[in-house]
């Protein structure tokens, strides 16, 4: 089973992906994590995307599609892929559809985690404050200004994917406001 987790920054995509990895032996493909790894290790691509990510804009389709293609080609024995934070544009969604068909597979569910903006801001700024309180550093894009840009990017470039997957009959909305376990149960209900 292959699933997409859709939702704005702070909706809980990473949190719920991790629960699915633990419970169903699925593989999490988070383009955000891949890009942050590249940034931290100072690869040429990491240096190229750093400023774009830090201000909250989207990295080019070409780069993220390339990252996903590499992971899919690596294969492996598992319970399916969880796409976390990918696709984020219609071009990425089309590319994912093509990659899946080349592999003789398809997307089974696109799950939209629904959380209102006030709570998203609270969660993201709360995560930044917790990181600092624990003696670490906050994610470079977990600040008010970058978050505004991230939310704008979501509503402008990513939210059209809701219609895209709805038209394919793959979209299910899940209330992302409950506890992490409540949200996980709702997702489990969708996946069966
Ligand atoms: P990415 O890493 O994907 O960040 P994001 O979408 O902004 O999402 P987050 O990771 O902040 O939130 P999340 O929904 O995963 O929630 P989480 O579980 O972490 O992308 C970062 C950047 O990389 C982008 O801005 C862009 O520049 C680039 N990028 C990535 N993919 C790209 C692509 N495909 N195309 C182009 N550019 C791309 O939870 C957030 C917080 O809330 C946590 O503290 C968590 O503990 C808490 N929380 C979660 N669930 C709950 C709950 N139910 N109740 C209470 N708290 C909760």
UniProtKB/TrEMBL annotation:
Primary subcellular site in the record, as a coarse category: cytoplasm
Catalytic activity reads: AMP + ATP = 2 ADP
Give positions of region: NMP.
Answer: 30-59
User: What CDD domains does UniProt report for this protein, alphabetically?
Assistant: ADK
Q: Which InterPro entries match?
A: Adenyl_kin_sub (IPR006259), Adenylat/UMP-CMP_kin (IPR000850), Adenylat_kinase_CS (IPR033690), P-loop_NTPase (IPR027417)
Cell compartments where the protein resides: Cytoplasm
One family name in Pfam for this protein: ADK
**Which GO-annotated molecular functions does the record name?**
AMP kinase activity
Alphabetically ordered keywords of this record = ATP-binding, Cytoplasm, Kinase, Nucleotide biosynthesis, Nucleotide-binding, Transferase
* Enzyme Commission no: 2.7.4.3
Class of enzymatic activity (EC top level): transferase
Binding sites annotated in the UniProt record for ATP: 10-15, 127, 178
Q: In which pathway does it act?
A: Purine metabolism; AMP biosynthesis via salvage pathway; AMP from ADP: step 1/1
Q: Where does AMP bind?
A: 31, 36, 57-59, 85-88, 92, 139, 150
Say which family it is in.
Belongs to the adenylate kinase family.
What is written about domains in the entry's comments?
Consists of three domains, a large central CORE domain and two small peripheral domains, NMPbind and LID, which undergo movements during catalysis. The LID domain closes over the site of phosphoryl transfer upon ATP binding. Assembling and dissambling the active center during each catalytic cycle provides an effective means to prevent ATP hydrolysis.
Self-association state and partner proteins as the record states: Monomer.
Q: What does this protein do?
A: Catalyzes the reversible transfer of the terminal phosphate group between ATP and AMP. Plays an important role in cellular energy homeostasis and in adenine nucleotide metabolism.
Protein name per its UniProtKB record: Adenylate kinase
Origin species: Octadecabacter dasysiphoniae
State the gene name recorded for this protein: adk
